Amino acid sequence: MLMLLGAVVSGIMAVAPPEPYGPVPTPEQLAWQRMEYGMFCHFGINTFHNQEWTDGAKAPATFLPTDFNGRQWVEAAKAAGMKYLVVTAKHHDGFAVYPTAHGDYNVKASPWRGGRGDVVREVADACHDLGMMFGVYLSPWDRHDPLYNDPPAYDERFKAMLVELLEHYGPVGEVWFDGAGSEGHVYDWEGYYAVIREYAPQALIAICGPDIRWVGNEDGLAPDTLWNVHEITLPIPGEEGGGARRWWPSECDVPIRKGQWFFHTRGERNLRSLEELLEIYYRSVGLGAALLLNVSPDRRGLLPEADTARLLELWSVISETFDKNLAKAATAQASHVRGNARDYAPANLLDGNTETYWAPDDNARWAWVELDFGGEIVFDRFMAQEHIPLGQRVAAHEIHVFKDGAWRIVAKGTTIGYKRIHRLPAIKASKIRLFLTETKAAPVIESVGVYKASPRDLAVDMVLVQEP
Questions:
Q1: β-sheet bridge partners, residue 342
Q2: What is the pTM of this model?
Q3: Which residues constitute the domain of residue 443?
């Protein structure tokens, strides 16, 4: 028999919290996952040649932005709801957009600002000033540097460039290593990681690194089943051997202009529609991954007006949809509560506090939590979040609604992880139930949300309507 427990549950004795299940995020990984959404800015010598990859032979004099303003990039990203920004300090062509002391293929050899310009400096300073996390992209592949064919010598130069970026432009929150073009080349990954850990211990090493994993495509789409724990064979700083299971969350990167990471003449025709960007958002952030949306600065050194307008349009729709959580007006009850203790009561799901959560007892492998609105409401979005500081546990779940005197299943899913959003047709119901049907350990749920989408947000997932 299920024990129904309402908002008032208490215990005389303190009840210990659940033990973590499996690997859990570091504080830096947790903070990064909670950012959810960032901007990627590909800007370099390619920008001036209508090419995605140049061969390392383009003249530095061709890098000549006419009205560069890195702060404009950061202001636009912040206004569009983004929480971090990653800039390309050096792409595969080898041209550095900051005045590195290591090599001669960089902005010092450009007539831009008399050879005294520094893209990374202006963007980093703006990020720090405006409260955005700053990240750098440094391509291991280098099509210009003659040392590239001497791996030990190149590794030392690459590490010296890392030191420059981390020492002089910090704090750096993410270091983005692209794996493109590296087939057959052996890098000193362990040495690269050691430099980052020494000079920026707070920085997360992404993509070709042990802290953030690439989702596996450049379409911005996470898989429906998304686990944060994976076995990785990369060298782990301070640890022996490989093959360890680690917390390794996913980042989805995608350009706002289809197929264009760098600015191209007349590229505006490839600007993604609002509908496409909403689909990407729901299939990245809505599946528990971070979204890194690339916006290419143009040859002025500014974000194009059309792209910025589309970013703001996207964020206004997301805000209209998720600013009001209808669940806060509901009463919560659950099938189980850990030790019958108030500390783990279902009311915690609605308090907006990331430190509190609902949890059943340790032996629970299924559980449900129910929201009672006291009358019918209309909604079309449902959100749930696990309390990932204690690990990821849910393998399958369902959304039930109480309508016309009966419970009906309106959605099914697998993992929840950091976040899961279900898009539904408009549903009128008096009660909603999140049913956790399969878990690897007793579930620990931090938050639930019920929303009515903006009239401009029309996307709907496949919906299952059946008796539970």
A1: none
A2: 0.94
A3: 326-451
